[in-house]
TrEMBL record:
Similarity comment text for this entry: Belongs to the peptidase M7 family.
Keyword Hydrolase included in the entry's annotation: yes
Top-rank taxon, per record: Bacteria
UniProt name for this protein: Extracellular small neutral protease
EC assignment: 3.4.24.77
Record-level Gene Ontology MF annotations: metallopeptidase activity
Cofactor: Zn(2+)
Alphabetical list of InterPro entries matching this protein: MetalloPept_cat_dom_sf (IPR024079), Peptidase_M7 (IPR000013)
The entry's keywords: Disulfide bond, Hydrolase, Metal-binding, Metalloprotease, Protease, Secreted, Signal, Zinc
Subcellular location: Secreted
Lineage of the species this protein comes from: Bacteria, Bacillati, Actinomycetota, Actinomycetes, Kitasatosporales
Signal sequence coordinates: 1-22
Catalytic reactions on record: Hydrolyzes proteins with a preference for Tyr or Phe in the P1' position. Has no action on amino-acid p-nitroanilides
């Protein structure tokens, strides 16, 4: 009788695919946030096509919670890139699906000698919710023009990538702001001074 009870004690957990007193061989799956996909339209970006492609790749390689992809149709994009004659300026995000972000890639920064891929990646950082930090080193993408024209780094550092992942960690919010701040980046080494009245 004791042998039958012992046999049943061993048989019941086996039938239930579990073991008594031991951790499961198959740990419970952890819920992972879904990746937010943002689409962009670069059809109005002209000569910026290659820098945009590289900038997007740099961001996609660095972050996990958001992915940037070209829109299947231009009118459906969450944000757009366009070539302009002025200074770069961008909608400060984070932008989410259904958003209306705008990246203006200004020729004046190129005329000053700044790297086009760094400009495109920096402005994309604004779309993803990162502010400027002009006092930062060249290794910090959002230092923008601060390190000067010799800086060509177009990749976000670990802290910048972590902040973007944090911005998108909860997925797409149910409600999104209708109004966004626009960041104007004057990529210039010139310091504007005010002349005192005589």
């Amino acid at each position: 009788m004791i042998k039958r009870i012992a046999a049943l004690t061993a048989l019941i957990p086996a039938m239930l695919s579990t073991t008594v007193g031991a951790p499961s061989a198959h740990p419970a799956a952890h819920a992972t946030p879904s990746v937010v996909t943002l689409t962009y339209d670069a059809s109005g970006a002209g000569q910026w096509a290659d820098p945009i492609k590289q900038a997007v790749q740099n961001w996609n390689d660095a972050v996990h919670n958001v992915r940037l992809e070209p829109a299947s149709t231009p009118g459906s994009a969450d944000y757009l890139y366009e070539a302009t004659s002025g200074w770069p300026q961008t909608t400060l995000g984070p932008i989410f699906p259904g958003g209306n972000g705008d990246v203006q890639l200004g020729q004046q920064a190129v005329d000053e000698g700044y790297d086009t891929t760094r400009i495109a990646a920096h402005e994309t950082g604004h779309i993803l919710g990162l502010p400027d930090d002009y006092s930062g080193p060249c290794s910090e993408l959002m230092s923008g023009h601060g390190p000067g024209t010799s800086c060509t780094n177009a990749k976000p550092n670990a802290a910048e990538a972590a902040q973007v992942d944090k911005n998108y960690a909860a997925g797409t919010p149910a409600a999104r702001p209708h109004h966004h701040q626009v960041v104007i980046d004057v990529w210039s080494g010139r310091v504007l001074t005010r002349v005192a009245p005589r």
